[in-house]
Amino acid sequence: MNPHPYLRAYLAGVFVPTLILPIMLTGFIVLRLVLQVPVPIERGLVFPMALVPALWGLWNVLWLGSHEKTHLAVGVHGAILPAVLVPCGTIVAHCLGILVLGASSVRWFQAVSVPYALIAAGFCCGVAVYYLVWKYIVGFVNRVFGIA
């Protein structure tokens, strides 16, 4: 008997971002308040901090529910998540006026311009990081919770 496997899958998925996001928040606070970076970082930080852990948890529940049919490894499944998060985050940031899409670059907070080539390289690195985190950390927590 395996009581509440989806609840345990959700908790296993929420584990990593719940630990990492407060560390990132500390870094952003230091940038904004101590180093006096004039970029309004808090406008673009609140939404992801509220949504990303829940999405990771739901993504792990989706992996558990679809694993019998797809036989997809947890690392590969996790590496697909940035392909969902980045477009959704871009749309939300664009609608909120945080991000302006240009012909050759993206303007962030109307202060920083980032070329698309750098964004593509960062996205590839992000996919690799997600793969490793999901394979080793989320996979480990799934095994500890008895759902993998």
Mind explaining what this structure looks like?
This protein is mostly helical. It has one domain. The protein is built from four helices and three strands. A hairpin with a 3-residue loop joins β1 and β2. The longest helix has 30 residues. The two termini are 14 Å apart. The mean pLDDT is 88.
What kind of oligomer do you see? Answer: single chain
**What is the global morphology?**
globular
Helix content: over 70%
Radius of gyration: 17 Å
The main pleated sheet reads as: 3 strands, antiparallel
Helix/strand class: mainly alpha
The structural domain count equals 1
Q: Largest sheet, order of strands side by side? A: 1-2-3
Q: Give the SSE string.
A: HHHEEEH
Task: List unreliable stretches of 5+ residues.
Answer: none
Report how far apart the termini are.
14 Å
- Mean pLDDT comes to 88
> Using DSSP, what is the number of strands?
3
Q: Count of DSSP helices?
A: 4
Strand content: 5-15%
